[in-house]
Structures are given as C-alpha cells and as structure tokens.
Amino acid sequence: MSFPFLLAFEDAASTATEISSNYALGQNILTAIIFTAIGLVLFAACLWLVVKVAPFSVQKEIEEDQNVSLGIIIGSMILGIAIILAAAIHC
Predict the structure, then answer these.
(1) What is the residue range of 45's domain?
(2) Is the pLDDT of residue 4 over 60?
(3) How many structural domains does the chain have?
C-alpha cells in the first residue's frame, strides 16, 4: 500500500539529488577551467624562462638546426608540468 505523502517526499528527494549533482558538475568544470588556466600560465612562464636562460636561440635550434635533444628537453618540460598539474587536480 502506497501513501501519497511518501511519494511526494521521494520526488522531492530525487529533485534535491539532481540539483546537488548538477552543482557538483558545475563546480568540477569550473575547477578544471581554473587548473587549465594555471597550467597554461605555468607552461608559458617555464618556456619563457628556458628561452631567457639559454645562451642560444631556442627557436633557431629547434626549427632550423633540427636539434632533437633540445626538442626532447622542451617536451620533457611539458610532460613534467602536465604531471604536476594532474597531481594537483587529483588531490
């Protein structure tokens, strides 16, 4: 036997769960956007630092001279930043 007031309570509970679920999804999306922005800024700062510290033109070495080792170093830097950001998001 079903009571009408119990059905209304179950509908209200499911609606509240959907609202909190949507809020959590929006919060997760916002957090992902913030971490993406931080990651891009961090990547740009690291790349700028490498270009300023290097005693040679990084762009010329990679593009014209086909310096594979420098490309590997820059790629490793990108992967390192990605791992750090993934660990920060995971926590």
Answers:
(1) 4-90
(2) no
(3) 1
